[in-house]
UniProtKB/TrEMBL annotation:
Protein name: F-box domain-containing protein
Recorded superkingdom: Eukaryota
Lineage, opening ranks: Eukaryota, Metazoa, Ecdysozoa, Nematoda, Chromadorea
PANTHER family in alphabetical order: DUF38 DOMAIN-CONTAINING PROTEIN-RELATED (PTHR23014:SF1), F-BOX A PROTEIN (PTHR23014)
Pfam families assigned: F-box (PF00646), FTH (PF01827)
Domain annotation F-box: ranges: 7-47
Amino acid sequence: MSSLLEMTDVPMRNILEKCDFKSVLTLRKVCHSLRNFIDDTCFKTDLDNICITIGPNGFSVTCSNPDPFWLHGIEFAKDCTSNDLKIILKLVQNSQLSYFLVTTNPDNVGGLDDLEEILKNQTRPLHTERFVMEGSGILKILPYFDSKALKKISILPINYGTNGQNLVGIEKFLELEQFKNAMELYINNWFVVRADLSKFFHFQRVRVKLHETSLEEHVALKEAFVTSTHMKFFELHSHGLDENKLEQVFGTPFHDHPLGYSQWFFEIQNCKEHVLRIDFAFGGIGFRKLETKKVPQDAVVQR
């Protein structure tokens, strides 16, 4: 029987793809030959989720696979160095992930720079369906993810005690292919974005807080929604939103919601099964596609 070291590349690669990720890391420690083969071989791992936390003294990495028994993931490395993280990310660069989370640390700005450098030197961009960033430095990380694989982007604050935080490099973020190709975007309301509302019309689902919007932009959003085949949900917060002003462009609102929402209903072009419902409450406005049969009996659906 041949030993691992005597096998050719193809069966060795097949064996590695059958191993769980923790076993691959263990095999890597057996000898230099195995380590070099694992580091130089492109193979898919069983990982589905990766969470990287930048701590005050290094990185912590938690990984999991789609197996339902991996409910909370396995912490592979705690307080690891940038070299350790480089090894882990190199091993997963050929895998299709569902979720990738980066949590930054305001006390370790250099940690984010180290992560950026690691991703920049990867031979190929990482593949994940959803990317979540806790912190404002998304521009340092997002460009190194495959723009065709990425579908959902979320940006969360690391400090909920400071409202009105600005995103670093928002202008460049809006021009990234990852932003343009994604289908869903969630930017927590603790961040204020300075950008034209129309920049977000290509998404299926959006949550964002803009510094300022005009009535003309809200009308443009409504028109985009009723003529679109892809838009499903758009939640917007901005300074100066006022029901009286909205009434000027959307007409008299419908008031029969248990939470006191003001609502408007509009037909969607070439679609009898759904309508557009606009909700206004608590300084925010929501646009969503609603099944026609769920429209309140006394509500007027405008054209």
